[in-house]
Amino acid sequence: MSEERYRTLFQAMEDGFLLIGAAGTEDPSRFRFLEANPAADRMLGSSLEGELLDEANSPFEPPLFPEVRQALDEGKPRRATVQLKDSGRWLDLGISPLPGDRAAVSFRDVTSMKELEHRLAHLPEQSDQ
């Protein structure tokens, strides 16, 4: 498959995709957003490409970098569910380690599923009233 075809697929994906890489050797918990597709920018509310990812400026709650660090250290994919601080939206993430202290992060918005889970969890309380 050609670079152009991969780029077209990357741009057209419905799921968000981020390529994250180590920001440097001085602090292994800091990463940089290397690349983001349009779906990621849309779900996150802005482009994070080139931005640092650390505890202070993470748009995610809980912060994403411990999950990325663990996936890289273990060399195994991980899943996580995080909430966006600004919008309160929930994302289901798949974090895949890549060579060169990088990770591919794909995600989709699962806010409506989380809201439904919350309503169902409180359904017995409502029926008792």
Explained architecture:
- This is PAS domain-containing protein.
- It holds the Pfam family PAS_8.
- The protein is an alpha+beta fold and 129 residues long.
- It has a single domain, classed as Beta-Lactamase.
- It is 33% helix and 32% strand.
- It contains five helices and seven strands.
- It has a seven-stranded antiparallel sheet with strand order 3-2-1-7-6-5-4.
- A hairpin with a 3-residue loop joins strand 6 and strand 7.
- It is globular and about 50 Å long.
- The termini are far apart.
- The model has no long low-confidence stretch (mean pLDDT 86).
* Residue share in β-strands: 25-35%
Total strands: the figure is 7
CATH topology name: Beta-Lactamase
Gross geometry: globular
Protein name: PAS domain-containing protein
InterPro entries: PAS (IPR000014), PAS-like_dom_sf (IPR035965)
Pfam families: PAS_8
Jot down its keywords.
alpha+beta, Beta-Lactamase, seven-stranded antiparallel β-sheet
Please outline what is shown here.
The protein is α+β, with helices and mostly antiparallel strands.
Summarize the topology.
Elements: H1 3-12, E1 16-22, E2 31-36, H2 38-44, E3 52-53, E4 60-61, H3 65-74, E5 78-84, E6 90-98, E7 102-109, H4 111-121, H5 123-127
Antiparallel strand pairs: 1-2, 1-7, 2-3, 4-5, 5-6, 6-7
